[in-house]
Amino acid sequence: MQNHRPFWELLFIPLVALIAIYFLQRGVLTQVNALVVLGAFFACLTLLLIVREIALRAPRQEQGIFQKIQAFYLPRGREDSLFKRFVIHLALITASIIALYPALRVFSISLRPGSQLVSTDLRIIPQGATLEHYREVMFGDPETGKKGNFFLWTWNSLIITLSTAFIGVIIAALAGYAFSRFQFRGRRAGMVFFLTTQMIPAGMLLLPLWLMLANLKLTDTYLGMVIAYSVSSVPFSIWILKGYYDTIPFDLEEAAMIDGASQLEAFWRILIPLSIPALVIVFLFNFMAAWSEYMVANVIIKDPMMRTWPLGLSEFAGSFQTSYGPFAATSILVAVPVMALFLYSAKWLIGGLTLGSVKG
Amino acid sequence: MTLTLEHVISSLIQVSGFVLAVILGIIILELLLWVMLYRRARNKVARGAIWLIEGWFFLGVGFYVFFYQVIGFGTDMVEAFNKLLNLPGDLIYAWTGLDLIPLVHLDQLPYPWLWILLLFAGLWVALYLLSKPKPVRNEMAYLLVAPAVVGILALFIYPFLFEIRLSFANLVLTTFKDYRQHDALTLFSTYGVSLAYGIKNYKGVFTGTVAKSATFWQVLGWNVVWTVVNVTLHVSVGMALALLMNRKLRLRGLYRTLLVIPWAIPQVIAAMAWKQEFNYHYGFINNVLQLLGFEAINWLQDPFHARMAVIIVNVWLGIPFMMVIILGGLQSIDKALYEAAEIDGAGAWAQFRHVTLPSLKPVITPAVILGTVWTFNMFNVIWLVTQGGPQEKTDLLVTSLYKSFVNFYRYSHAAAFGMVIFLMLLSFTVVYLKVTGGLKSIYE
Q1: Does A360 contact B at CB distance below 8 Å?
Q2: Domains of chain A with CATH codes
Q3: How many structural domains is chain B composed of?
Q4: Interface predicted TM-score of the whole assembly (ipTM), two decimals
Q5: Per-residue confidence at A356, pLDDT binned at 50, 70, 90?
Q6: What sections of A182-275 are H helices per DSSP?
Q7: Which of B14, B276, B439 sits opposite A192 (nearest CB)?
Q8: What is the pLDDT of residues B400-439, one digit of tens each?
Q9: Whether residues B224 and B373 fall in one domain
């Protein structure tokens, strides 16, 4: 095995090392940290390549830590050539940095001490990093006597979002079952009807919706917000749930009904427990759609006590020079749980998005 | 402003009360529909009685809507509920002339809602006793769909019709009070509605300015450019990344997670954070540009660069979605197809052209349509990064619409404008569905 490695692959090592030296030298001379980091990156790459070549060219080891290193580098099935893989990794690392850096920037700004809020610093962990902005948005600032309103905003968002998602799931679970299991008159028309409502952009119905809520004196209330949000994701949820119900064989319910259960019992006792994963996903989808909604909330809510977090954040956006830090800290506090939730459930959400299409 | 215990308790009471009311409403609706769909009258007399009760119920609802909307106690919710409570008495008086109002003045009784429920229960029991079971097939479907239909009717269809009505009115900031005093801010009111207003409003959309200074055609033109540029970049970059990751590669899972992050961040936060990064002195984009030896750009001040800026943000936000969808599609392609192509002597490009693209088509088409609609109607990025500025040069149709009634109080104009946008999107959808036959997959 070790004798079949092409010799020219070794040439990569000096090449990468030269790049590393070039960047390191330029960086140290001009005192630009970014270039030093780049140089260090290429230096690490050089080391990695050396380890790899040794591992691949050395005789096969049977045990020990070196065996593990070797096993990591041994080709698994058909792989691309080293050069190709190098280019691919380089492209993907660049893309990852572009994807990640703006997000990390918010994090880095949230750590900046007040004196350095506006600076041209590009580092992720700033000099003199501090958690003062987190304390300020959560518990207030004792020096200026300003109160922290992070909990208020989050609570408002949470209570509106949870009840919205709850109502949405109940309605969609029932309707999805009908569309999945029954060939009733009006089924086609119903599906098209639900689909068409989804074509109406939210901004379009905002004016009549706001007038309706104002007429009922429901602006600036939780009720108004829940009403405005509750059905907006229902058509989409019905679609996802119908697709999921379709994958559960009807035989299960039929067997229950032969044993004397009514159709409603079969639905409740058999289908609902089986489709809990889908219901959770639909709940999450409804939750996330309402959680970071800005446009409707901005029209319906004017009272500072009723603000949801997107509105609160945009309040910071008004005076950015001074509230850059609190903005970043609030963003991180709100975004991290939601991102975790999203990354966890992304697989199912995407499955739902493409469900209708892949089948056809 | 901070969170207090009273606020927590009062909000919990409000919201849980509402959720319970919704559940109760669904139960009442289901019970009523059940007795109507699952049972039939015992005999001719019973049929007449059932007709009477059901007729009363529907007429009651109809009358309520009529009173509520036309005669106009719609401005005060408390009063409206009181009217609802007294509806039975009012109806009896209206139909028979019998003044039973003191008897059935429910709002003067303790626990008024209890009486309403008791009345309903009584009517329901009467319906039940007057009927017997009948054979059913698909009736349950209607029971299941009913709550969704009621919700959609109330919160999509009613506002939609209301919007049409508004577009034929003359509602602006100065006339708002007048309309309000005449209770004309409801669907069925006829005050201040005329064809002339409608013609003026719809003509104004196409000939006048839509928000402040930009015209409909300018906004539409930029909206189309914005959509095409964004979707093209989303698909091409997403496809490139997906192709790179669809290989035997170490750390693939890590890359995937990292690259999905722009999608996972709440859009509102991403947009507001990006806005700061376009700051001339302190944004990282200019800092990086200067580091690389370019000149700093005044991103948000001149139209061209502002447009570039919003496109950068939206491309950054939108690529992960396309990438993930395309990657999913790539992974589901049968490897045997590639082996067969290789045996036939197809190179990498030919394989991509004749195997990958055709196999991806069913996955990409709906994703592109979805992405197009999302991009076309993108509100958050534009509003939170540039507010449509400078000089409304980055405004999309949605943000212009939003501005026209939130900032400039041109309500009737906004209604007409909204209808125009809706009709455009609808025709796009219809054409798309016709071309691809996309509705089939929904039916089956």
Answers
A1: yes
A2: 2-131 (no CATH), 150-359 (1.10.3720.10)
A3: 2
A4: 0.81
A5: very low
A6: 187-199, 206-215, 222-230, 234-247, 251-258, 263-266, 272-274
A7: B439
A8: 999 998 888 889 999 999 999 988 888 887 887 777 665 5
A9: yes
